[in-house]
Amino acid sequence: MNSEINHCMKLFNIIKPKAVKVPIIISSPHSGTYFPESIAEKFRPEMIEKPDDTDWFIDKLYDFASDLGITMISANYSRWVIDLNRDPASKPLYDDGRVITGLCPTTNFNGDPLYRNETPDEAEIDFRIKNWYRPYHDKIGELLEETKQQLGKALLFDAHSIRKVVPGIQKDPFPDLILGDNDGATASEALINATLGVLNKSKKTVEHNHPFKGGYITRSFGNPTENIHALQLEMAKTNYMDNSETQYHNERAEETRENLKQLFQELITILK
């Protein structure tokens, strides 16, 4: 296993700003699709061939960010290897009866099993935390602290997507956009209101903290009293993918990208 760590692909990509740096870091923890060979062989083949809980193309959707001076970090490993947006102690983020996928998921969002037989034991989970989870979180912490030291403040923007309908979470279709800030705890009121203001001007349906309040990344890093803010934006995949939610849709994506650009321009203004 150790040799596999040394020879497999890097854990994440860092895209540095092309323009003058602004105090925003975008995180895409669920757009990765890589499975280490030793783990892949334990999965049911039909599941690993199509890791459907992936936030497909989110890193591509936001690739304009560097032109605005924004730093971006995106994970390369699949969330089914280890979910970077879950509590490392596997404490559930919600208690409303929805399917809760774990730190090292054994089912998908609808409760379908991922593994052939053997699921990760405690030692395996500890290994994945040390080698694949901690480095991503440590890097986010480093980027935020570095940005705060340079610019006096920092905003972490955690970018996600989900199928329009996931019965394991809720029966009704999701709105287009869901802003999460853990009920106002992870970012300043000014940043939250500015974000909602821009999102509500779009042609999309918008919800705030329902059904997602922000995952572990948003909740653990957001500390507005220390000038480190965090927001999560969940979006239905139909905002930038086709109706099958399997292919990137250029026209839909471009409209969404324009909405996002307007949002970040507003946030940059607020953060000055």
UniProtKB/TrEMBL annotation:
UniProt keywords, alphabetically: Coiled coil
One Pfam assignment: FGase
Protein name as catalogued: N-formylglutamate deformylase
InterPro entries: N-FG_amidohydro (IPR007709)
Organism: Flagellimonas zhangzhouensis
Coiled coil: 243-270
Domain of life: Bacteria
